[in-house]
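Readers of this paper often ask what the protein records in our data store actually look like. Such a record has a labelled line for the sequence and another for the backbone structure tokens. Nothing more is needed to write down the fold, since each code stands for a local backbone conformation. The remainder of this section carries one protein's record, kept here as part of the documentation.
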Amino acid sequence: FTIIHNFQIDDVERLLEIIKQAAKEDAMVLYTLADPSMAESAKQACTLWGVPSTDVLGPVTEAIATHLGVSPSGISRGAPGRNLPLSKDYFRRIEAIEFTIEQDDGAQPNNLQNADIVLAGVSRTGKTPLSIYLAQKGYKVANIPIVMGVELPRTLFEIDQEKIFGLTINPVILQSIRRTRAKSLGFGDEIRSNYSEMDHVREELAFAGRIFAQNPVWPIFEVTGKAIEETAAVVWRLYHDRKQKCSMPRISKRY
């Protein structure tokens, strides 16, 4: 058998790619993720895709927390050995993470109506990391890739348009991200030219821009140089403003 080590995984998108690959190869996943939200994402993804898995670090952390009488977050656990009660909010977040993983990268477009938030953008604009971050806060998120020559799912235009948000990025930054990504996947020069060359990158962004212009209700987020938390905070605000029927301009606005 073969053992593959993946170190310093602090990106949810990369984590999901590893688990997807494990599912394809009928492999087992052992993980030591210190971030509880990352560990929960790994657990849910492995369950959904039928990948045998073991959280190596979790039991150790739990044992230390029980011995010290605190949770990993530093919140008192009360009586020794007693777990904190599982709240409705906890189950809501778990359900949101499960939904979001199932809907990643345009999967199950017929289920878009059940999403709280739908993200749309070209490849490598950060749709998956932002989706998982929002899911960890309890939002059911779907993300739809915009690809030249590929028609967007009909259901995208049949759902409530006010829950759709577009993502865009500076072409130079996108090219750099794609070149790094293509290299890590071992793509040849021919494939890289169709994915990470500037002409193609600009064409894809322009194509996405035309779609955004045709759908002026969708707010557009410029993600260049922004942390996921920063973009997520604005998405939250707009999402709740719209749910509360706050007045908003019916034009495509960039954030």
Remarks:
- Residues 12-85 form one domain.
- Residues 107 and 144 are 8 Å apart (CA to CA).
- The beta strands are 29-31, 53-55, 117-121, 141-145, 164-168, 220-222.
